[in-house]
Write the structure tokens for this entry.
Amino acid sequence: MYQNIKKITMLLFVAVTMITFASCNKDDDSNGGSSSINEAKLFGTWHFENADYRHCDITFNTDHTCDVREYHYSYTLSGNTLHGSYTYYSYGYNREITEYIDLTIKSLSDDTMVMDGKRTYVDGSQGDYSGTLHRVQ
């Protein structure tokens, strides 16, 4: 009887261990759900699919800067999250101003990018920078 309990306990332990390892597998499908992106695919100019005044072209440069309108942000990329800042002197505020851009890149292929994002202005208000973008040829 003791031997049977010992065997059953060992089998249960092996089964639980196999289930644990199987559930830890992360499939990476060309960034559709991945936690990191291929940064080389990011570089270049991107245009919003349904552009309006809020949504303008964004150019990502190899020196970790991006251009949004006349603003030249320095950015860091961690996984699929991009955080950028742009500091300039404002004569209206009579001081230096820093604005921010925060983007989560949901998917990225050679010619299409989907992202959620916000641009934070000097007064704390935010502009929506979410949508589907296409690479400008």
Observations:
- The longest helix spans residues 2-23.
- DSSP finds two helices and nine strands in the chain.
- Residues 88 and 97 are 5 Å apart (CA to CA).
- The two ends are 74 Å apart (CA to CA).
